Amino acid sequence: MKKIYQYGFSVFIGLQLGVSSCESDKNFLTEVPPTFYTVDNAFSSPAQIDQAVIAIYAQLRDLWANPNEDEWIFALRGNGTDMFDVASFRRGSSFNNYGNINPDHGTFYNTYSTWYQIIAKANLAIHAADLEQIVWSSPDEKAYVVGQARFFRAFAYLNLGELFGGVSIVTEIVTAPKYDFARTTRVETYQFVIDELLAIENDLPPTTAEGGRLVRGAVQHMLARAYLAQGIQLAAEGDDAAAQSAFNQSVANADKVINGGTFSLMKSRFGSRSSEAQGNVFWDLFQEDNVNYQDGNSECIWAIQIDYAAYRAEDGKSKLPYSRTYGPVFRDGAPQHLTGALEDVGGRGIARMIPTLYARDMVYANKWADDMRNSDVVLRRTLIGNVATSPYYGKPVPWEIIYNGSNDASTNKANQSLCYPISCKIATDRYTGIEDGEDRSNLFRDDYFIRLSETILFRAEAKQRLGDKGGAAADINLLRERAQCGYLVSAGDMDDQFSLILDERARELLYEESRWNTLLRMGNTIAVDRIRAYAFWPEAKATLTFDYNLWPIPNTIIDTNKDVPLAQNDGWQNR
Q1: Helix (H) or strand (E) holding 146
Q2: pTM of the model
Q3: By the 8 A CB rule, do 134 and 43 touch?
Q4: Lesser CB count within 10 Å: N end or C end of the chain?
């Protein structure tokens, strides 16, 4: 299958100019030297503009997979929320100790600036598409390339709106220093996203031949998400009528994806390992060669592309380092019983980010335990002792022993941070590349950016916010029925703090969703309440002594924008 390869191209952003050579000092000093690249002469063909768009795919791949193991990206992926924390030996880099978290924290600046980098790249591609020297083969060719760029611009602003609130809307290439950007409101930021996505909805095809390319369903999914976020903010501001309209639009756009005939939940075994008795359909979703829609996976709406051949040849970032970064460290936490870095302990884990007790255990307590997503092949809890001197050698090691094998409470807490069930999303029993020297740190499968199950969860939330708790429960049960859960929810389970929806998101989207975006867009004190309740380490509850529902605008951004004051978000002033 042909894939979109996400490497090997540099683009110019804003005023980034390159000089290839100059014939003489005189030529160099002429007003318009022909050897300088500018935003207007750097492109000469549609293929070059498409490569500028591919550069955005590449940046998003790296942002999601985090092949360089950047600390701030772990926060972007959920570290510091109710779902994720850090191991005992990484408490110094915790993202829930609010004695260290303020508007100068690098995570906020890196996140904010990275989304604007993507916006700058998108603006460049959009600008270049209208250059007079570009000859498009058809209006449709141009519409699709520009549509992808506008999607990425909208996606960046949606993330900024969810995390930081109203931000500055920039739609043109900035060619001179500018210090007077003005913030829009959060509602206006969401409206920009909605307008952009509505404008390109029909410019993206229902499906593509290439894995990883954007399709119409991705636009409609993001519209469902944007309208939901906007409705929540409108309701918070007291505009109930407008909020209800937004929630209805969220449902309508989710309906297009869920009921449109292109995408559907996978309910039967499929793909490269479907004949193996050990698996189930949820496990199949996360096996090599099974992720893309083009692989027969009707649940995949948009996936980042990972290619082992490209990784070996020239693209060292084409990997998912999930076994390494997310994997447990039994060799440190339960060395008397479990050791090594082979498949039996989930590969070569170093626990850069760990699931909280809530995410790994509490969401499956009692009646919630009977769930395919809690099966041993999906979330492996059966660990066979592999230390010859252990009384559990060759036998399952009880979790009571793994978690609480010491007489010292502090040691047990540390062990619990290092040892946890192994998700099939971060590890495998069949690692690619071992014969080439790979060490079970990386997966070489594609990974989801959008899966249909999240569209269903957006629709469930929008229905609940419309007062239709029965409809919300029915949507949740679409996922629970697929997961063959013993307990199906009812309208009475749909609580007003949206805990049921957040719990179901944790069960379905562990290691997939951007949890900070989810918690912060929900508003009120949902984010801080859940952090205080479920953070693994006690620092969060002890130091989170103020409320917030947005990340702070980075102080560097405020200070640099010297000609127009940028207001700081509530809760972060004077911190």
Answers
A1: helix 139-164
A2: 0.94
A3: yes
A4: N
What whole-number distance in Å separates Cα of residue 280 and Cα of residue 291? 15
Domains detected in the chain: 1-88+98-187+525-575 (1.25.40.390), 322-436 (no CATH)
Q: Could you read off the pLDDT of 353-382 as tens digits, one per residue?
A: 999 999 999 999 999 999 999 999 999 999
- What pLDDT, in 10s, does the model give residues 392-430? 999 999 999 999 999 999 999 999 999 999 999 999 999
Residues in the chain: 575
Whether the CB-CB separation of 112 and 555 falls below 8 Å is answered with no
| Residue among 125, 123, 3, 119 nearest 53 (CA) | 125
Our measurement of the distance from residue 6's CA atom to the centroid of its chain's CA atoms, rounded to an integer in Å, reads 17
C-beta of residue 550 within 8 angstroms of C-beta of residue 163? yes
CB 196 within 8 A of CB 154: yes
Q: What span, in angstroms and rounded, lies between the C-alpha atoms of 75 and 243?
A: 30
Number of C-beta neighbours around residue 352 at 10 A: 19
Q: For the chain, how are helix, strand and coil distributed in percent, rounded to 5? A: 45, 5, 50
Contact 540, 531 (CB under 8 A): yes
Instruction: Please report the DSSP string for 293-311 in residue order.
Output: GGGT-TTEEEEE---HHHH
Residue 150's nearest CA partner among 222, 211, 73, 252 is 222
d(CA 66, CA 324): 11
DSSP annotation of 237: T
Decide if 199 contacts 556 (C-beta within 8 A).
no
Contact by Cβ (8 Å): 420, 427: no
